Amino acid sequence: xxxxxxxxxxxxxxxxxxxxxxxxxxxxxxxxxxxxxxxxxxxxxxxxxxxxxxxxxxxxxxxxxxxxxxxxxxxxxxxxxxxxxxxxxxxxxxxxxxxxxxxxxxxxxxxxxxxxxxxxxxxxxxxxxxxxxxxxxxxxxxxxxxxxxxxxxxxxxxxxxxxxxxxxxxxxxxxxxxxxxxxxxxxxxxxxxxxxxxxxxxxxxxxxxxxxxxxxxxxxxxxxxxxxxxxxxxxxxxxxxxxxxxxxxxxxxxxxxxxxxxxxxxxxxxxxxxxxxxxxxxxxxxxxxxxxxxxxxxxxxxxxxxxxxxxxxxxxxxxxxxxxxxxxxxxxxxxxxxxxxxxxxxxxxxxxxxxxxxxxxxxxxxxxxxxxxxxxxx
Length: 378
Prior knowledge:
Layout: H1 40-47, H2 50-55, E1 58-61, H3 71-79, E2 84-86, H4 95-108, E3 114-117, E4 119-121, E5 124-125, H5 138-144, H6 147-164, E6 168-169, H7 194-210, E7 214-220, E8 235-236, H8 241-246, H9 249-258, E9 262-265, E10 268-269, H10 285-295, E11 301-304, H11 310-313, H12 318-328, E12 333-334, H13 339-351, H14 357-375
Parallel strand pairs: 1-2, 1-12, 2-3, 3-6, 6-7, 7-9, 8-10, 9-11
Antiparallel strand pairs: 4-5
Helix pairs in contact: 1-14, 6-7, 7-9, 12-13
């Protein structure tokens, strides 16, 4: 793949000033159906318009407090033919409502949707209140030192998600809680040592997979030894390559080998890395291509952390954010602060030659491959 750098965005600065308007994408409700199950994602790709292809790069959050497919939701999904939806507590009322909502969302889309959630257990649980027994935080599971417990807990979570029509989980956490001042991760991590965390991450990935739920391991390259919360500002990973290879990298390597469907990249800067391009990992070709793809060997979905976080929005425009992450090598841009602006920026970037069909299709094949593998068979 041709390396792209964030500096190329300067030449496209005029995009930020382009009026935002919705392209007339094909919004028919009929699904794209393959005549050959062995090449379904190739067939999908051949049938998609450029507007549909660009839309597949985005996973969005719905309008606040949306609990049904009303006019605002319908209009948004017509304007931006997204690959998926991330659900939060404000979208949920009870189990029946969630089941109806996810089914109705799927009915709006021409391609199956990823419907995703953060369901780690412990303090990060969106659906726990709808079931009799809460699942424990990862740290409590890690202290037991038993991968069977991690796998069993993952299966319980996945069964609950599948029952509600949710097919992707932003879990497990592969961060190592090596900094006691780190409160954003804390007991969300499986432990303080890479071997324990790696074993639990691997078991959790396999547990989700056994119940047909996609796993997205996070937050690459490691958010456990940072002091900052990337919801509010850029987090700083203070160590160099030797430390990374010995500690933070290991759980992500385990997750990749276990077959995690996605790896979520954090809004983290790594000033101690001499090879780094000094950009946030989210924008870094070095981190996404050289380290994650080539050295770790991960060929699944690279998904950004939420693009609405202040770590990015306080420093870059909406167009710069979505273009920067895609050009660095991300496949799915999660929760842009304005989905229509993000969609338009990507579409304009393609039409102006900032990226080509080869780069676009690399991400689309990974997205469609995951949809074929997990969603069509359900």
